[in-house]
Amino acid sequence: MNGSTMTCDPDLDSAITEFRYVAQRLRTLDQQMLTAAVDRYKHFAAIKHERAELWANLRGKAEKLQLVPEDHHLGARALLLVTEVAWILHARTRRKPTPAMIKAMVRDMGELAERERIEAEADKVETEFRMRTLAVRVSAAEAVTRYIELSAA
Prior knowledge:
Layout: H1 10-18, H2 20-35, H3 41-65, H4 72-93, H5 99-152
Helix pairs in contact: 1-4, 2-3, 2-4, 3-4, 4-5
């Protein structure tokens, strides 16, 4: 990507370019962690170590850019997000995305994430209700079992 600015911040623009590999590598490592067998502990540990280093690099750059000054972990997530979005848009359009394009896509992704968060919260409430219902059934079964045992004695 070259030419005009993507984000109206030349430091953030250079970070997006600098961290393209980091973003891709983190996604690859996430997939590898999911498939790493327990018996391949050394491989799993190496993946975990590399991920930690990549996240530390993101946090350091996010802190330097002051993306989210009050929360460096959130800043690292924000830097990863804007990096991925910029490169997705670049791949689609074959040109450097504009700040408006990045902002629109990030906003849309945020809205989708919020809807998914609300759905997950609703699923959690449903699961907790089901767990309480099942706990009552377990207690009822135990009570009936005790009653029958005492009646037989």
